[in-house]
Specification:
Blueprint (H helix, E strand, L loop, with lengths): L1 H21 L8 H11 L1 H22 L13 H15 L15 E2 L4 H11 L3 E5 L5 E6 H11 L12 H5 L7 E5 L4 H13 L6 E5 L10 E3 L4 H10 L1
Parallel strand pairs: 1-2, 4-5
Antiparallel strand pairs: 2-3, 5-6
């Protein structure tokens, strides 16, 4: 029984350490407080929130309500310890963000005709494309909303002249809004942190583009939108 309790306490403390790390080692490192904060940012914690909260109560009973050195008021079942260890393993080795990205990424050069882009939107049913210069410098993210706005502004007598119009013409002056970059080795925790930080700043993040080392001017290996985050929640629930 002592071995089961020890496994539980060691694993619980390791998860507590992960929660501290995920929250930037705050002064208030109460387990439940950290759990509540992490729930708002990370799907793995959301999925296991109720379990971990109950395990925190069990841990308190083990540590603070021990009758004597070798006798506990409450002890965990083996299944509980194994479940806690599975959660800890997920935190130790979170999946890479690239696993949840849309791949391959369709992108265009700055001189691509608008007619070609509109056809790609229709054919592939993708709502946004990264745009690059001929030297692979990232210029911005062209979205279907951006195209609609441009068409609305260019409409004259019920017609729009798209002759000679390229992707660069549609990006506008503020051509790099709400796009961030992440290395291909980045974890799903880092990915979720990007979206959570932008939310806290009241800035809607349209996408996180994944490149080999997070450099914006490398060609994209994957792109993640808020819709793709649904896959993160679904994967964690299935696990």
């Amino acid at each position: 029984m002592d071995e089961i309790v020890e496994r539980f306490e060691v694993t619980f403390n390791q998860i507590h350490q992960h929660l501290k790390e995920l929250n930037g080692y705050p002064k208030n490192d109460n387990f439940v407080e950290l759990l509540q904060r992490s729930k708002l940012k990370h799907s793995v914690i959301r999925v296991h929130f109720d379990q971990l909260k109950q395990y925190a109560k069990l841990r308190n009973a083990i540590v603070h309500e021990r009758i004597r050195g070798d006798y506990y008021v409450a002890t965990p079942h083996l299944e509980v310890v194994e479940d806690l260890e599975r959660i800890k393993q997920t935190l130790d080795q979170p999946p890479q963000a690239l696993e949840f990205a849309t791949r391959p990424v369709l992108f265009f050069k700055e001189d691509t005709p608008l007619t070609h882009v509109v056809e790609a939107f229709r054919k592939h049913e993708i709502s946004q494309f990264p745009i690059y210069t001929s030297n692979h410098e990232f210029l911005g993210l062209l979205t279907n909303d951006g195209i609609v706005r441009w068409i609305a502004g260019a409409l004259a007598d019920g017609h729009v002249n798209m002759d000679g119009i390229t992707t660069k013409d549609l990006l506008g002056e503020d051509n790099k809004p709400n796009v961030e970059f992440l290395s291909s080795s980045g974890s799903v925790f880092e990915l979720e942190e990007h979206f959570e930080t932008s939310l806290e700043a009241e800035r809607k993040l349209k996408a996180v583009i994944i490149t080999e080392d997070g450099d914006p001017d490398l060609l994209p290996m994957g792109i993640v939108t808020t819709w793709d985050l649904i896959k993160v929640d679904r994967r964690n629930r299935d696990d």
